[in-house]
Design goal:
nine-stranded mixed β-sheet; 14 helices; single chain; 13 strands; Alkaline Phosphatase, subunit A; globular
Length: 432
Amino acid sequence: MKLKIIVILFWAIVLSLTLGAAEEHPNIVLIISDDQHWGDYGFMGHSVLKTPCLDRLAEQGLLFTRGYVPASLCCPSLASLITGQYPHQHRITSNDPPLPAGMKKSEFYKSQAYHNGRNVMIEQMKKAPALPKLLAKQGYLSMQTGKWWLGDYSSGGFTHGMTKGGRHGDEGLNIGRDTMQPIIDFLDLAAKEKKPFFLWYAPMLPHAPHDPPEQLLNNYKNKTPSIHQAKYWGNVERFDETCGQLLNELERRGLNEKTIVVYVCDNGWIQNQDSPRFAPKSKQSQYDGGLRTPIIVRWTGHIIPNRDDTHPVLSLDIVPTLLKLVGLEKDAPQPGINLLDSNTVEARNAVFGECFTHDFVDLLQPEKNLRFRWMIEDGWKLIIPQPDEKTGIELYYLPDDPNETKNLAESQQQRIELMLPKLNSFYNPQKP
């Protein structure tokens, strides 16, 4: 009888431990840089820039060097990142509501028209399948820091956050630039409550103003004749240092094997050599300078480090990848794939995207805001403009022309005829 009791107790303990282990979910940290060119990293081969912290993350994780965001503009790109949906699906295609004719931007931001338009955008986010809402089903605490365009942090389903409702982040924009303390406090809270956490770390870096500390600026002053380039590079290294602070804090707390870390950029940037502004073919454009980004997924002890320089992937793939890792199913139409499924990554034939106006033309009809559709297949990139754009069809072969300088549309009509039906199947609105 005693032996039987001991056996029963033994299996009860085993069952309890098994169930406990099954209920443990990995933490998630999503690092998002802001306005950074896809090649501006040490691990991407930059000959000048120093990014040792992100270099280390890339070595430790699954790195896709040919990642893309669907749209090269902050607000829609971030909305797509957190929902796993294209802008035409979640309908947040642009940064700002429609600008009334004759009204100056400075007046518009204080107007009722702006306030009303913003409310429509925020309601769209509230309806969308945002990642924090989905993770809440597994008991996750979630924290928003940095860039956030769509009202109070709670509109995205975050349980905690810094942004109170300002246009692109208000108090949240202090993270990384002035302090990391809100993140420390959140990690303490999650530990105290013994709950898994999701952290959105999206500092306004290296985004303008390019005002790096003097010691970082000095690293680049003598490496370029443009002070604007040196300041941008200094801000890239500044961002990298903050990533190091965050990653070191996870390591100090013994969380590396319990935490998935993902890295991506919201959109690209090419520095204008003569001003603080961005150069053509970068931010807001239909070119790789605005759309391409490396994507890293690290989970120490669980994901085998590897570098993929071949297959194009999308920021939309991040949500389904994370849902799979925490044992959740997709909750809405989310076209991305699981980046850890190598067979699916290899089998994907093409990736697609879309670029819209900076300001909405229409808050409810995405097609009225559309400027370009694009796709990449077998190294070929096809760009189809809307009729009112002043450019024609563009076709580039990226392996030989990564900066998209040689438009091959005229000499490759047959290839365009093969690709265009696939692009139309992805998204083919009839613009009024």
